[in-house]
Each structure stands twice: as structure tokens, then as C-alpha cells.
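<instruction>
Derive C-alpha cells from the sequence
<data>
Labelled lines for chain and fold:
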Amino acid sequence: MSLSDDPRSLSVVIAVLNEADNVEAVAREAVAAFAALPAPWEIVFVDDGSTDDTAARILGLNDPRVRLTRHSARCGKSQALRTGVVAATGRWIATMDGDGQNDPKDIVVMAERAWTQGGSPLVAGVRTRRHDPLSRRIATKIGNGFRQMVLDDGCPDTGCGLKLFERAAFLRLPIFEGAHRFFPALFKTYGHPLINVEVNHRARASGSSKYTNIGRALVGIVDVAGVVWLRARTKAPPLIADHDQSR
């Protein structure tokens, strides 16, 4: 099934790792929320090497609108998202987390903002009220401040899993583990405007985060330096026109 004939078609990519207790509820809530979309849509789960029943729970939904692709071993969230985008058939991509903390209704709002903006924006969710432990909120605030100071990406909350963008635009970006936290800076480098949208945030229903504050902070410092280098070495002029002689 391909959705790409519709210019507003949407594929929602959800990368998951050992989320067997959450994926069924996440999928059902998303299916209900996306009924409000005025365009065709699909959900693409990417199982990043889970060792529990995550894949079986997704397949058990038996819903043709919900697809599954799998990694044989854990590759990380950024690569899992790229796998999902490659597998997707919509012209637009939305990403959300598979732990139940994101509200899929926010994707409907974000899609409308993107479709009425014109051009090829990145729409980024901004969590105004976090339902995470205090230590994580403090670590995130420090990390966001450091990143914005160095990269000037215009996004106060790059860690939010809710993002929306054109598939073709994403596939031009470099990919590395941790890239999902730098989408605003990377999209800006390639000339795409940023739209920040306030979104809901909820407590995790089950399970635990796959990241630690210290581990994320240490890797994040190195990643910021890497993104500075990538941006300095990237020359990405905007396209003037696409002269397709087959039309």
C-alpha cells in the first residue's frame, strides 16, 4: 500500500525497544486520534531489537493501518527512526514515542500547521509540563540550554519525541546515533523553517526509560561538537525548481 499520491499523506513512525506493555494501548489510541486527519495515514512501528514480546503485541493488533519493521539487534533510536522513514509511504512523517507519554492528538494539530504553512517546515513538539522525575527535568533543562547556546536552533525542547516533517527532506539529512535530538539544527542547515507547537506530556504507563541522565549528558556534549562540524561542512542551497520532463 502506498499513500504517496496524496500530498498530505502521513506516516507516523514509532521506534520501540522492549515496550510490550505499552505498544497495544499506544497503537489503539493513535488509530482513534488519526481518524480526525483529512488525509490517508499509516503507523509504522520499528522494533529496535526488542527481547520481549513487543513485536508479537504489534502483530497481534491485526490492523492493516499498523505496520511493523524490525532490527535484528539494537541500533539506537536515530537509526530506528530512519528505518521507519525509509519504510514509510506517506509524503509527510510524524514521529512519536512508544511509551505512552506522547498524545497522538497533538500530531493532528502539528500536521495542520505544516500543511497550512507552505514549503517544507519542521514542526517540533514542545512539552510545557513534563511528567518526568525531577532529576530528568533538570538534566534536560541544562542540556537544552547548552545546545541552544551553541547551535542556536530555535527549539526549546529537542528531546520531545513529537516531530513532523516531509519524508524527502529528512532523507537528505546525515544520520548518526543521537541525531533525533538535533533535528531542528540539522533541518535549519538545509533551509527548512521551524514551527514550535506546545504539546501534552504524560507519565509513562509502564516500564522504564532506556536512557540515563549521565550517559545522555556525556554523549550529548560530543554530539553537539559533531553537529557544529557537520553544519560547518554542509553546503545545501535551496532548490530553485524541479524540472521533471516526464510530467
